[in-house]
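hey can u check if this looks right to u? its 410 residues, i copy pasted from the old doc so theres a chance i mangled smth
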Amino acid sequence: MSVYKYEKSASLMERAKRVIPNGIPGHFNPTNHKPAGAYPFYCERAEGAKFFDVDGNEYIDYMCAYGPMILGYGYPKVEEAIVNQYKKSDTCTLASPVMVELAEFLVDMIPFAEWAYFAKNGADATNMATLIARSATGKRKIIAIEDGYHGSSPWMQNKSRIGISEEDHMETLRIPWNDVVALENTLDEHCNDIAAFISSPYHHPAFKDSVMPAENYWSDVHKLLNKHNVISICDDVRTGFRIDARGSHEFFGYTPDISCYCKAIANGHPLSAIVGKDSLKQAAQSIFQTGSFWFAAGPMAAALVTLKEIKELDIPTQVKHTGDQIFNRLIGIAKNNGIVLNVTGMPSMPYVRAEHPDGIEFHQKLCGECTRRGVFFLSHHNLFISAAHAEEVLARTEEVFNEALISVLN
């Protein structure tokens, strides 16, 4: 099996660096993709479970655009819906009726939801959620989990990042995951100041294994939040619709006050949403957040079809089953080669890590060699499964993984 070369990708990167800081900014920044030289930089096209880079190399995509793709790239029903909406209007002086239809569908789909708002990015949704919590409670501080990621706003970025100051974090209190005592102590210490507790349904930090909630964790958390009149915000941006069509909180057996969605909501088209209880509707009406393209109708039409497909086809069950299948097979291949492959988190979006005396560098090499052979794995982030990951894709993944593992062991 030959390994890929990236001549056109490298040339395009050199052009980009002259006019774009880093060539590619943010989470697509290639400095995150280690080892250097193992990854392409630019995609030419995508279809189903695959994408093709500018050098013509083909990849089975286990990042799914960092989560937004869930049905498959270019899913016909979704693309037809967005094109039909574009023919009528997209970004316009007035909102489109499809916004109302989408909000109605979400309220019907998510049991606790009584209203919905829309934006573009996950950070838009988490910011709106915190504003609503502050409006409803008259308090300012937010409790969040250590290493929990809720968007790129300064108040949620790591303090060590350039341009972020201590002042940005003055109203964000961090506690360890699965630590109910720490939550209780923080609530007691700041009893008159806490507006909300924000967390993902389970802990999925970058560069670390995912961790599920301990037994009774969410019920114990909500007893404390209710006692102190603190709003519960579920950040379902990454996990939403890959675990349960009704919202990931349903799978884990709790009911938040607000949930935030993005990623898979429109199968790759730019949209985010928050939904909430009726008790917070007046607070939601009182805040002001908006954006130039927040009312674009095309992505809303795409989302409406995507969510209908997710619900009707029970996509969460499908992608969890597929994830179980492929990663159990890879665990077996690793074991046959004397390697332990840790797979943590939900099967539909697991964090995968090969154990080795060389530590993370070994796993980085393994992911790089898989990528250079056509299976796109990243070492620092959880992977994603889509409905387009069919059996032929899984079989090819096994072949590539086996060869890549042998190459890094020799």
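DSSP finds twelve helices and 13 strands in the chain.
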